[in-house]
From TrEMBL:
UniProt superkingdom: Eukaryota
Protein name as it appears in the record: Unnamed protein product
ANK repeats: 55-87, 88-120, 121-153
Residues making up the signal peptide according to the UniProt record: 1-21
Keyword terms: ANK repeat, Repeat, Signal
Listed SUPFAM superfamilies: Ankyrin repeat
């Protein structure tokens, strides 16, 4: 006699993705991805795609804040907008620069992130990285053409 419990693992990938679309939050989808390595391999890209489509590309901000290069790379492969800004007016490059995450900053610049993007305080990635003492990021931004003349919002 067969086991009456049906495992998710025997379902076709298309059906698993359909089930994933009905989960209410990214946290729920992430939890499902984390339950099994096979589910992770099948649904993790879908999680990134959902973040781009539904959650304002917040995963790229998270990756920039915490120096998660692989996450940023996957998001870029999935079509994330590297020039987006969060509700604080911060771009991913501004976060990477402020927190000193050189590898993420390098990736974002390589992918076309705006060197002169400004937050609500008129800080640029260069001024923010300099203010926080992140010399390697300062050097990168200068080498890539960032304007070394800082102008605050008052002139």
């Amino acid at each position: 006699m067969k086991d009456p419990k049906m495992s998710l693992l025997i379902l076709p990938i298309e059906l698993l993705r359909l089930i994933a679309t009905f989960l209410k939050t990214e946290k729920d989808l992430n939890s499902l991805c984390q339950t099994n390595t096979w589910l992770y391999s099948v649904l993790n890209r879908f999680l990134y795609q959902q973040n781009i489509r539904i959650s304002g590309e917040s995963a790229l901000i998270w990756a920039a804040k915490f120096g998660k290069v692989v996450t940023a790379q996957i998001l870029i492969q999935e079509g994330v907008n590297v020039g987006m800004h969060d509700t604080n007016g911060m771009s991913p490059l501004l976060y990477a620069a402020a927190y000193g995450h050189l590898a993420v900053a390098e990736l974002l610049v390589q992918e076309g992130a705006e060197l002169e993007s400004k937050n609500w305080q008129s800080q640029t990635p260069l001024s923010s990285s300099a203010a926080h003492g992140h010399e390697a990021v300062v050097k990168l931004l200068l080498e890539k053409g960032a304007n070394p003349v800082y102008k605050n919002r008052h002139g």
